[in-house]
Amino acid sequence: MSTIAAPLVEMRAISKRFVRRADFAMRLARKLGAKGSDATVHALDQVSLAVREREVVGLVGESGCGKSTLGRIVSRILEPTEGERLWKGRPYRELDGRAARAERLAVQMIFQDPYASLNPRMRVVDLIGEAPVVHGLIGPEERESYVAEMLERVGMDASLMRRFPHQFSGGQRSRIGIARALAVRPGFLVCDEAVAALDVSIQAQVLNLFIRLRAELALTYLFISHDLGVIRHVSDRVVVMYLGRIVEAAPTAEIYAQPNHPYTAALIAEVPRVDAKRRVYVPIRGEIPSPLAPPPGCHFHPRCPHAFARCRVEVPLLREIAPGRVSACHLNDLP
Amino acid sequence: MSAALLEVEGLRTHFFTRAGVVKAVDDVSFRVERGRILGLVGESGSGKSMTGYSILGLVDPPGRIVAGRIALNGTDLTTLDEPRWRKLRGERIAMIFQDPMMTLNPVLRIDTQMVEAVCAHHDVSRTAALERCREALGHVGIASPEERLRNYPHQFSGGMRQRVAIAIALLNRPDLIIADEPTTALDVTIQGQILFEMQKLCRETGAGLLWITHDLSVISGLADDVCVMYAGRIVEAGTVDDVLEHPMHPYTRGLLDSVPGRNVPGRPLAQIPGMTPSLLELGEGCAFRERCTRAVEECRVAPPIRFPAAGRALRCVNPNP
User: Fold this and answer.
1) Predicted confidence band at A3 (pLDDT cuts at 50, 70, 90)?
2) Is the model's pLDDT at A276 over the cut of 70?
C-alpha cells in the first residue's frame, strides 16, 4: 500500500494541555502566601501522525497515555493547544464554508461505551436518521428507507428501527453506533476502544463488521485500543504511545515480530495469549507515572530495564530506524 | 482425589423474579485443590460471578441457592447460619472483586481497614495486627508499606488499589481465594504484575484459587484447570492444556476461534452467530443449540454430563471430533 499522495489526515506536532485552575481555597491560600499553581496535564506532547487514505492505523497505549485525546483531536471534538491539523494536505484553518462542513462529516467517531453514547430517549430511526437529514444528505421523506439501508449494512434487521436503545444488547448497540457514524457517509472513522466493552464472541462479530465495511466502503480507520490482539488483527500500521508521546510506529507485522522500543517490547511480551501455556510471568516493574508530573528525559526510563544516564536527562526524538519505521529511544544511537 | 479443598456439587442458584425464574446457576459441579488454580470462564450473564457469590453465601433475594452442596474442607457451607458464615468469610474464604473500590472504604485509611479485617477474626493487639498488615502489603509488591498504610484509597493508583484489595484478602491466610475478574480494569503491564503475584502467592501458601474471568488468554497463562460456563451451566471442564488445545464443546471452540490474536491479521474472525440467550427464555435442551453449528435433533433434550477422557467433563451430544 504505497501511495505518494498527501495523507488523508495529518497531525503536525500536536500538543494538548489540560489546565485545572486553582479552586477558591487554593486562591485564598495563595493570597495568604502559600505556594501552588494551576495543575497542568500534558496529555499530548509534540505528537505527529499521518494517516493515508484507506489505511488502518492502530493506536495502542495504556491508560493515561493520551490515545483518546489524540483521537478526539483528530475527530475535532477537542482543539489542540499547539500544532497543526491537515486534511488532504490543507490546514484545517484554511478550510471554510462548504469544505469545512464536508470535512467535518467525513471524519466520524465511534465511542467506547455502547450504553452511554446513545440517547436513551430517542428511537433508533431518529438516532441514525437525524444527522443525514439535518445535513441535507437525504430528504426527510427518505429517512426511513435510508435508516433501513444503514441497519442492514451493519447486519441488523430493519424492522427494529422503532425501538429504543435499552431494548438492544451491547453488541447490537455497538452496531447502532456504527450505523449512526456511517449515516453521514464518512471516509474516515475514529474508533475509540470500540470493541472493549463487548464479550469475546460479540467482539469478533463487530471486528468482522469493521473489516467488511472497510472493504465495502473504502474506509480509513484510526483504531484506538489497549488490546494488542485487536490492534494486530485490524491494523496495517501500529503507533505506540506512552505518557503523551509516540514512542514507536511501524507496520503491524514488523512491530510484533521485532519491537524496537523497550516499552513496545514489554507491552507485546505482557499480552496474555491463548497459546502461551502456563507461563511464568516476568512483569515490567513500576507504575505508570502520573501525567501531572511525568519523569524528565525519556518518560519510560524509570521502568526501562535498559535505561542509562542519557535517558534521564534528554528526551529521545522519533527517528527513522528502517524504512517506514520510527522509534524514540536512545539505545538506537549506541554503536 | 480425596477431600478436595472446595467441592461444589449440583449447585443451583435461582432468582425468583416477577418475570419468572432465572436459573443463573444450574447444576454446577467442580472442585478446587489446594495450591491449584481453577479458571471459571464465561461471557457476561453466564453465571460465573453468581457461582462465586454462592460459594461465599452472598446471594441476595430474590436469589436463593435451591439445591447443591458446597463443601470446604469437607464441611457443607449451605447449611451454615449467619454467625458461622461471618466467621468464615475473610478468614477461610476471601474474595477479590473486579473494582477494588468495592472492597475499600474511601473515607478510611488503609491501616484502619486492614487492622479491622485482622481483629475481626483474631484476638491480637493492634501492633501485632499492624505488623501483619505490613507483611501482607510487602507480599503483594507494594513498596514502603510502612508509609502506604497511612494513605487513603484515593492516593493509590488502580493497580495499587487492587494490590491492597489482594493484601486484605490474604491477611488471614485463607484456604480459598475467589477472584472475580480482578485484572479486567487494569492495564496490560499492571495486569501482568498482578497475575505474577497471584501465581506466586498461590504456589507459596498452598491456597486454592478460583479465578473468574471472561478472558481465555488470562486463564491459559495462569490456571491449572478450567471450567467453561454458558447460560448457567458448565459445558466443558478439564485441565487448561487439554481444553485449550482440544476443545470438544462447540462453544469453547467458538470462543477460542474468536480471539483476535490467534487469527491471521486482517482476515475475518471465526464468529459465533447470534447472542447470549436471555436466561428467562431458556427452554429445555442445550442452551447453545441456537448458535451451534453442530446442533442435531438430540440437542433438544438437555445433554447429560459425560466424561470423555480422564479429568475431562463435557455437556454435548455432538462434540467436536
Assistant:
1) very low
2) no
List of chain B residues whose C-beta atoms are within 8 Å of the C-beta of residue A241 = none
Please say whether the beta carbons of A294 and A287 come within 8 A. no
- Say how far apart CA A204 and CA A210 lie, in whole Å: 10
Is B195 in Cβ contact with A281 (below 8 Å)? yes
Among A63, A272, A288, beta carbon nearest to B221 = A272
- What pLDDT was estimated at residue A2? 44
pLDDT tens digits for A223-243? 999 888 889 989 999 999 998
What is d(CA A14, CA A44) in angstroms, rounded to the nearest whole number?
A: 7
- A 62-81 → B contacts, CB under 8 A: 62-63
Closest CA relative to residue A245, chosen from A154, A316, A314: A316
Nearest Cβ partner for B275 among A169, A229, A234 = A169
Q: Note whether A252 contacts B259, CB cutoff 8 Å.
A: no
Which residue of chain A is at minimal alpha-carbon distance from B251?
A201
Percent of chain B past pLDDT 90, that is, above it, reads 20
Check A202 against B275: CB less than 8 A apart. Answer: yes
Q: Are A82 and A112 contacting, i.e. CB atoms less than 8 angstroms apart?
A: no
pTM here? 0.82
Contact A199 B158 (CB under 8 A): no
B255 touches chain A (CB under 8 A): yes
Crossing angle between the packed helical segments B158-170 and B188-205, to the nearest 10 degrees: 10
Nearest to A70 by CA among A116, A14, A19, A17: A14
Q: Which amino acid does the sequence have at A332?
A: N
Partners of A62 on chain B (C-beta within 8 Å) are 187-190
| Interval A64-69 mean pLDDT | 86
Q: Phi first, then psi: what are they for A140, rounded to 5°? A: -55, -30
**Angle CA B95–B101–B105, to nearest 5:** 95
Which parts of chain B sit beneath pLDDT 50?
1
Does position A326 have pLDDT exceeding 90, yes or no?
yes
Q: What is the ipTM of this complex?
A: 0.75
The grid coordinates of residue A318 equal 522519533
Mean of all residue pLDDT scores within chain A:
86
The residue behind cell 453514547 is A117
Residue contact A270–B188, C-beta within 8 A: yes
